[in-house]
Please model this.
Amino acid sequence: MSITFTAPQGFQYVGASLLSTVLVLAGQNFIVSKWRKRSGIKYPQLYAEKAEAAASKDALIFNCAQRAHQNTLENIPIVYVTTLLTGLKYPILAASACAMWSVSRIGYTRGYLTGDPSKRANGLYVLGALGSITLLLSSCYVVGQSILESL
Model:
């Protein structure tokens, strides 16, 4: 048995928005590596110890960079699933919300890299929250409608 899938008009934008998340992750990975090297924190140590971060601004910024990257990794499965599900019915909405989330992660990371974690929740943070909520609600709607149509 085979299944044919026809992507809706505009689905290529969903692909582009998902690719933007890969670029964000690659950028964060580069930043973490840079600050790991500058701080002298060796593998497999995930974070600088509290005393190391207190003694070295580079170690503190490494911890902040690592945390920003880790938080993005924690959230990316949700973004992927909700973007794809929403994109099945509303590809432009899905692509726009995912792109908003990606842009917000750049601001989130830049805020964290100041060494003051409270600056991670800057103006772009709201953009990411709006993107996430849009994706969550719209993906629930798409799945719910699909279930109702199949009854």
Observations:
- The first helix runs from residue 11 to 39.
- Residues 14 and 95 are 4 Å apart (CA to CA).
